[in-house]
Amino acid sequence: xxxxxxxxxxxxxxxxxxxxxxxxxxxxxxxxxxxxxxxxxxxxxxxxxxxxxxxxxxxxxxxxxxxxxxxxxxxxxxxxxxxxxxxxxxxxxxxxxxxxxxxxxxxxxxxxxxx
Length: 115
What we know:
There is one protein chain. The chain has 115 residues and is mainly β. The protein has 2 helices and 9 strands; from the N terminus they run E-E-H-E-E-E-E-E-E-H-E. The strands form 2 sheets. It has a 5-stranded antiparallel β-sheet with strand order 1-8-3-6-7, with no helix packed on it.
C-alpha cells in the first residue's frame, strides 16, 4: 500500500503519530515501512536517537527511471519501473527491503520535496 505525498514538507514521524498516513482507497491508517522519492529534488533532515546533531542530505535531481529509498540508510536505486505516475514521493506499507520503525530509530525526520 502506498500513499502519495507530492511536493512540500513531509514529516513522517509526526504524520504517523497524528495518524495522517492513510490508505488512499479505504482511508485506514497504516504503519510506515518505507519512503521513496523520484522525479524531484529533496532535502532530508534527520537525527538518529544516538546522535547529538541533525544531519542534512540533499538530492538536487532524481530523474525519471531512478529513485531514492530512505530507510536505515539512504540508498540511491536506479532502473525504477518507468512509472508514468505524477507522484513525486510516497510512503509505503509493504516495502520488504526496508522494514524500519522510523519512530524508534529517528529522533527527527523531515523531507522537503520540490521540483
